[in-house]
Structure formats: C-alpha cells, structure tokens
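user: Here is a favour to ask of a fellow structure person. I have my own habits and do not want them to colour yours. Could you put it straight underneath, so I can go through it closely?

assistant:
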Amino acid sequence: MVSATEAPVPALPVRPLGEQARDLLAKAANHVLAHGFGDWSLRAIAPALGTSHRMLNYHFGSAEAFWEGVLTEIRHQELSQRQEVFEGPAGLAASFESAWQRFSSDRYLPIMQLLFEVLGQALRERGRHQAFLDDVVHSWLQPLQLRWQQHALLSDEEARLRARLELATLRGLLLDLLITGERQATTDALRYFSRLINQAGTPSVAP
C-alpha cells in the first residue's frame, strides 16, 4: 500500500460505482479472503480479477479508493452475519454462544483472520483508516449494550462496560483460536464465560 506520508486521499470512491466496478469488488473480496492482501498492489491483484491495474484506477480513481471498497465489501459480509446473530436467540448467553459458533466456524474463520490482518494495517496507517477502526468496535457496542439493557435491566454505563467486555472476550478467543488452533479449549473457555454472562444477566431486583 502507498506510504502514509503521501497526500491524503478520499477513503471511498468519489464516483458512483457501476455494475462492472461492483463485480470487481465482489471478486476482489473473495480473492482477498482466500489469499490475503499481499502487498496491497493493484498490479498484483488485477490479473486475478481478469483486468488491469489501469482499469482498476479507472473504475475507482485510486489504489486507496479500491482497497477501501474491498474492505467495505468484506465488512458488509460481516455485518450481515452480525445481524443474524442479534436477531437469533433472545437470551444473553445464548446469543453469545451463537456468535461464537458462527464466527469460529471453518467457513467464517478466514474472514476473522483477515479482520485481524486489516486491523494491523489500519493501526499503522490510522489517518487513512480511522473510520474502519471506529466501526470495528463501536458498531458492535451499541447493539450489545442494548441487549444488556433489555435482558438485564442495567444502567447505560454498566451495560456499555459489559458490552465492551463481551466483545473483547469474543474477539480475544477468536484470536486465540487462530493462533493456537485449539478449538476445544477456546470453545470451553467461551462456554465458561457464557455461564458468567447468564449469571450476570439475571436481574437482582424485580422491575
């Protein structure tokens, strides 16, 4: 990817994307999920998409806009999965375990690996990827906080704290699984934490 010392560029394409550009983003997202970002070069990825780096520049305006589009495409996949989790089991613990089953699955785990790789890149170039960094955490916290408020009758402040702890635990165990490959141990830890959530989610005072 280009150096962070270069002039700032728009985070997303400034022109409306046509059908061909959207198709290229879908292909690029699938390629990245299978092979990673490589050196973030348009020249490197273009042949895999059946096009040239010049055409990618034509459709997206810049390398930065193209890669931001790819990140957005991948995030949309994650967001759709997240919505299914929140619309799933009603209980706090059941929802937490449902999220683990989905995001730690053999089908979805490569996306989580990619997310951690992208986080590393984004932290090195925070100025270019601040919107992505904000979304990675805060877009999760609000619905998690709402669940804690609905099911455990917590104050705003305590619900936010528990939501952040829940998210950190889920992501930490996913990173543990990616590093160690120890699925049973990480799942056991997840279920242990789930039991703690179940206890914490029981209101101590009747409404």
Q: What stands out?
A: The longest helix spans residues 126-152. Residues 1-73 form a domain with the Arc Repressor Mutant, subunit A fold (CATH 1.10.10). The two ends are 54 Å apart (CA to CA). The chain has two domains: 1-73, 88-202.
